[in-house]
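task queued by scheduler; priority normal; single chain, no ligands, no partner chains; default sampling; output format set to structure tokens
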Amino acid sequence: MSMVQETISVDAPLRMVYDQWTQFEEFPRFMDGVETVEQLDDRICHWRARVAGVSREFDTEIVDQLPDERISWRTVAGSDVRQRGVVTFQRLDASHTRVNLALDVEPRGVVERTGDALGFLESRVQGDLQRFKDFIEDRDSATGGWRGRLRPADSASRAGMEGTGDAPRREPERPGPYPGPMPSDPGEEPTV
């Protein structure tokens, strides 16, 4: 898998920036190649995107969501697309916010692997963050917001795991400057 880490400062208050990021169905307005995102429930989003000229559909699960701090996700097991990521939000002052995005993607096929080797994924993520910045800075308010708390222990892949006698595990440290855990690979039990 390829790790991309990008940061951008946004001229907007933390709450507004976080609230806008929770509006996943708005992502096609600023994310290159994303055609549609349909939020199926609090945790699951269905994506239709164009990657290296190929249309892909996949589902992602929000593993951890803490208002005004972070959102982490991963693709659902069985998907052709394999990715996981975390976006964190840091208040710089009353009207400025830092957005940190760490994304782990497994390129599929020769075209995607070649593009990854040439740095296209990093350029795409940089462009998406810049378009997000422009999108939110051109507004007086977010297009909506969801402030619920989602915990890794409650994710779909852990359903039915209670009472197994397993001792709780500590969250592993994240590499780099991004706080919080990366979500586990699809099909694996999330790390908590």
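post-processing summary
- The first strand starts at residue 2 and ends at 10.
- The helical segments are 14-21, 109-117, 120-137.
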